[in-house]
Amino acid sequence: MISKKDKIVQTALKLFTEQGFKATTTKEIALKSDVAESLIFYYFKDKTELLNHLLREFSFIGSMSKEMKELLEMEPIPALIQLGHLYSDFLYLNKSFLSFIWSPEMMQNKDVNEKVIDLIHSMSQEINIHLTRAVSVPIEEETIELAASMFLSTLLTHYLVGERASDEFPLENDTYIKNIVTLILKGLDISN
Fold this sequence. Notes:
192 residues; Tetracycline Repressor, domain 2; mainly alpha; 12 helices; Arc Repressor Mutant, subunit A
């Protein structure tokens, strides 16, 4: 059974995505969650704190901390491939959150932008670790950061195209992720 707090969080995300953050009231969230409005304030100081909770709850690195530790125990290339799968799965499972966080309203919110940039930076750092482990020669930090950015953006684009084109032609994830890892690692080897 879902907890009342989780119900509030899920309902808030749904309403924020459908109506926007500013247009959604805590009264509406309570009504749709079938809880007293005071319970929202028991868990969260205000609507902004609820928003911040959503940002933490649905962050890739935050939600995958156990998996991130396990990746460090794997060989680097399989770890990168697994990381690609984890990220692809995360994108697929969190469609509502992605729609909300990249909405025009949230794009104009300075605090949210800072938090999203921090989340993206932490994702890049995690990928940097595995890319550095996978190459046999020292690579400049700037080059590794660029490769990590390419890895993330390519997988995000692949997901977005897949969402648009899934009826016409399903995109195959496993081969795509393996090919991306191979291309990035070859590019890093050539850069020396």
